[in-house]
Structure formats: C-alpha cells, structure tokens
Write a structure and sequence with these properties.
Shape: globular
Strand order of the largest sheet: 3-5-4
Distance between the termini: 40 Å
Largest sheet: 3 strands, mixed
C-alpha cells in the first residue's frame, strides 16, 4: 500500500506479483496489507453489515472529521483541485474508507483500488485527520500523474513518501516541537528523511539500511519536487497561499 481522460480516478491496474525479485530484496512481503485487516490486496474493503456500520461510533466520527478536512483544509483543497485538473476527480464515498487498523499506522493509500484508508481507531483529533488526508492525497496525486510502480520499485515508493512527508505538513516546526524535535539544523530535511524511512518500513519487509539507501538515492530530486504546491507549505497559511496561487495559475492558463 502506500489512464486516460476519465473524470474519476483511473481504474486500478492489477499489480504484478513481485515474487522473490522485488527491489531491495523483499521476500514474502504483504506490502503493508497486514496493517489493514479490513481489506485484502486487490480486493478492497471487506463488506460489513449496515447495522455494524451504523453502531460503529468510531466510523461515524472518522467520517465527520474526513468531511471537515475535505471542506476546510487548504492542503486537501489544493490537492483535490489538482487531481481534478489532472483527470482524476476524487469522490469521498468512492475513494476514502474509514477502517480499523493494526499497530500505530494512521492511514494508507491502496493503489490496487485507488482508495485512501483512514485508521478510525488511531486518528483522534481533527488536526491529525487533516495531516493524514493531505499525506495520502499526495500519494493519490502521484498515482494519478505518474506511472508509480508501488509494488516492485522501492525507489518509486521512497520518492512518494519523501514528497508526502515534505508537503503534507508532517514536518512543520509545530509538529516537530510536539515530538520534542526542534532547533535541529535543516530540520525539514532530517524530518522528511526520517518519516519517509519509517513509512517504508511499515509497509515493506526490508531492512532499515535498504530503506535508507532508497531514500538517499532519490532524496534530492523528490524533496525538490513540490507539485502541485510549487513550494513547501510549512503552515496552514502557506497552504492557503499555495491554493490561491494554484487557482490563479489555472485561470491564467485557461485564458491563454
């Protein structure tokens, strides 16, 4: 886990079985699906009864926080506009799923179904939901605009994880202070590398050394790829300005 001209996100391609020859030496890898017990690789979310969903209060809370994020977060609003412009319109009911997850994972992007999974048992605050939605939407944007080989090419995964950590607000100074990590020289680069490696290790059965090597190999180009923001949005205000500029850029090109 984390085609042309359609008004929705593109239909998923069936991933090739990496067998024992995947990048980075993965063998018998479940690609992170073990962290999301409500779904299987390529099969999406397992069906549950309507009564189960109705009484599951964590699911309702997750759905409410998701709606607020989509309507109010400038990170999410920019990414949704960018995906629509790229031909991959996102629909809340189709492309987001609130589910129970194992471990301390907060969310994931299931490329086999083009769905973003939100871990309803691990997301407890609106600010956390906003960051998770932005992080996973960056993966979805990369899936839409590029031929990302999520299952077989560890460098592709590393690049998207670098971009997601860099552009979603994960590594803002405020968030780093809450982790008691502040005053570091080049704290943004250090944080992005650390979180990208941790994200890779959560979904790949590889050593930390292999994950760090993949991140280092693509770091410079992927860290400096700010699409669709055109800058690193270090705060909500930065993201608002980036969204405004994106809308103005779109109007400019529409009038040429």
């Amino acid at each position: 886990m984390a085609e042309g001209g359609s008004s929705e996100m593109p239909p998923p391609e069936q991933p090739q079985d990496p067998g024992s020859s995947g990048s980075g030496g993965e063998r018998d890898d479940d690609f992170g699906y073990g962290l999301f017990p409500e779904r299987s690789r390529g099969g999406g979310k397992k069906q549950q009864s309507m009564l189960y969903k109705a009484v599951f209060t964590k699911n309702h809370r997750c759905q409410v926080m998701l709606q607020i994020a989509l309507e109010s977060s400038p990170y999410a609003k920019l990414l949704l506009d960018a995906m629509k412009n790229t031909g991959c319109t996102v629909f809340k009911d189709r492309h987001f799923s609130c589910e129970e997850c194992d471990g301390c994972v907060s969310g994931g992007f299931d490329s086999s179904t083009s769905q973003i999974v939100l871990c309803q048992n691990n997301i407890h605050h609106q600010s956390h939901m906003n960051r998770v939605v932005a992080h996973e939407l960056i993966h979805a944007f990369d899936h839409c605009r590029a031929h990302v080989d999520w299952f077989n090419n560890i460098r592709h995964l590393a690049c998207s994880e670098i971009r997601a950590a860099n552009l979603s607000g994960d590594c803002s100074l405020l968030n780093e202070m809450t982790r008691f990590k502040f005053g570091l020289k080049q704290h943004q680069q250090t944080c992005v590398k650390d979180r990208a490696v941790r994200s890779i290790l959560a979904v790949r059965n590889i050593s930390k050394e292999v994950a760090e090597k993949a991140v280092d190999e693509v770091f410079e180009s992927c860290f400096n790829d700010h699409e669709p923001f055109d800058r690193v949005p270090h705060s909500r205000s930065d993201a608002k300005y980036a969204h405004r500029d994106f809308q103005n850029r779109d109007r400019y090109y529409a009038n040429i």
